[in-house]
Specification:
It contains ten helices and ten strands. With about 325 residues, it is of the alpha/beta class. A seven-stranded parallel β-sheet has the order 4-5-6-7-8-9-10. Helix 8 links the parallel strand 9 (about 235-240) and strand 10. The two termini are about 35 Å apart.
Length: about 325
C-alpha cells in the first residue's frame, strides 16, 4: 500500500507539472466567419465553432448526442445531415451506439471528433474501478469498432456518495492519462451527475480536459461555488447532456416541440461555455438545430416567458428516473 501511495503522489505531481502554464480561455468562430476556417474540422460557414478548452479542438456549437430512438437507416440520415451542416462532434455511449455511429459515418469518420464511453464497463460497475480494467474496456471498444483511437475517451462515473473512493478517482485519471500517452485517446474526460465532485476533479487533476454534465433550460450558474469559474480557470471544455430534459420539454405538437427545442439550444448557447449535445432522431430535428444556431442568442421578453413556462412543465413532468436532473438547476 505504501508503494502504491507513493506512485500516486508521483503520478499527480508529474501531472501537475505537465499541465502547468496552460492558458485558460474560450474562443469562438461565429457562423459566417472565415478566420482559421481551414483549421476547423468539417467547417461550414453557417455553423459556429467553439474552442473545447485545452484540447484546442474547435467543435461545432452543437454536437450530436448518442441517445436516440433511431434505426440504423435513420441514424445514417441524421449523421449525414449533421456533417452537411457542419456539426463535427458525435458522442457515443455504449457498444451499440458506437458501432451504429461508425457505420453511419462510413468513409467520413475523419470529419468528426468522435467520443466514446462504455458505461457498463466503467466505474458504475464495481468490477471496473481500476486503471487496468478500464484500459481493457477501451481496448475492447476500439477493437470492436475497428478504430485505432478515439478523439475523446470520457469515462462515465457515478457521483461519490459512498459509491466511489478517492482511490477510484485516481484509478480513473490514471487510465485516462495512460490512454492519451499511448495514442488511444486524443483527449480525455469524465461525465457524472454530481456538480461538487466535478469541481473537485477539475481542480485536483489538471490532466482532465473535458467534462460532460446535465444542462437544461432550467440550469443556470450557481450564485456561489459555481462550476463555471473552475472550468475557466482550469481551461476545461464542457458538453451539456440532456438539454431537453430527457424529452420532458416536449408535448404532442410537433411544431411547438421544434420551437421549444430551438429556444432551449439558444438558451444554452448563451452560457458561452456549455456545448449542448442533444440526441436527434430525424433530419428535421437536425435542421431545426441548425436554425437555432443561426438565430440570435438573446431571448426577448416573450421568448423568456415562453421558455420558462415550457421548462416549468418539463420539471413537473420529469419521470421518476429523471428526478436527479433537478440537482442541476444550479451549476
Amino acid at each position: 500500500m505504501q508503494d502504491k501511495n507513493l506512485t500516486r503522489r508521483r503520478f499527480m505531481r508529474d501531472s501537475a507539472m505537465a499541465a502547468a502554464g496552460v492558458a485558460a480561455g474560450l474562443s469562438a468562430v461565429a457562423h459566417g466567419a472565415t478566420a482559421d476556417a481551414a483549421k476547423i474540422l468539417n467547417y461550414k460557414a453557417e455553423m459556429e465553432y467553439r474552442r473545447l478548452g485545452k484540447t484546442n479542438f474547435m467543435v461545432s456549437a452543437v454536437g450530436l448526442g448518442g441517445h436516440s430512438r433511431s434505426s440504423q437507416d435513420e441514424r445514417n440520415e441524421v449523421v449525414s445531415r449533421c456533417l452537411d451542416i457542419g456539426i463535427n462532434f458525435i458522442d457515443s455511449t455504449g457498444s451499440g451506439e458506437l458501432l451504429r455511429d461508425i457505420e453511419a459515418l462510413g468513409s467520413r469518420r475523419d470529419k468528426v471528433y468522435l467520443a466514446l464511453s462504455q458505461t457498463g464497463q466503467e466505474p458504475r460497475n464495481p468490477d471496473f474501478r481500476t486503471a487496468k480494467k478500464l484500459a481493457e474496456t477501451l481496448d475492447e471498444a476500439l477493437q470492436r469498432a475497428k478504430l485505432e483511437y478515439t478523439d475523446l475517451w470520457r469515462i462515465t462515473v457515478y457521483e461519490p456518495g459512498g459509491r466511489h473512493s478517492f482511490d477510484t478517482s485516481c484509478e480513473v485519471i490514471e487510465a485516462l492519462v495512460n490512454a492519451k500517452k499511448q495514442g488511444k485517446a486524443r483527449s480525455i474526460g469524465i461525465s457524472s451527475h454530481d456538480r461538487r465532485w466535478f469541481k473537485f476533479m477539475i481542480e485536483y487533476f489538471p490532466d482532465l480536459e473535458v467534462v460532460l454534465f446535465p444542462f437544461t433550460t432550467m440550469s443556470k450558474a450557481a450564485p456561489t461555488d459555481s462550476l463555471f469559474p473552475a472550468l475557466k480557470k482550469c481551461d476545461v471544455g464542457a458538453f451539456g447532456i440532456k438539454p431537453f430534459a430527457g424529452g420532458s420539454l416536449f408535448r404532442d405538437d410537433q411544431a411547438e416541440n421544434l420551437r421549444r427545442a430551438r429556444l432551449a439550444i439558444r438558451y444554452i448557447l448563451q452560457s458561452n461555455t456549455v456545448i449542448p449535445i442533444p440526441g436527434l432522431n430525424t433530419v428535421g430535428e437536425v435542421d431545426n438545430v441548425a436554425k437555432a444556431v443561426a438565430e440570435r442568442r438573446q431571448l426577448d421578453t416573450e421568448e423568456k416567458a415562453e421558455l420558462e413556462n415550457a421548462a416549468g412543465q418539463a420539471w413537473a413532468n420529469l419521470p421518476p428516473d429523471y428526478q436527479w436532473l433537478k440537482n442541476w438547476e444550479y451549476v
